[in-house]
Amino acid sequence: MSEPGRVKRLVPLVPRVPRVIGVLGGIASGKSTVARLLAGTSGVVIDADRIAREVLDARETRDYLAQAFGPGVLSADGSPDRDALAQRVFASPRDRAALESFTHPRIRARIQAALDDARRRGASRIVLDVPLLLENESEHGLAAQCDALVFVAADADSRDARAAALRGWPVGEVARREAAQLPLSAKRARADHVIENRGNLADLERAVADVADALAAGGKR
Question: Which of 30, 53, 124, 202 is the most buried (most CB within 10 A)?
Answer without folding.
Answer: 30
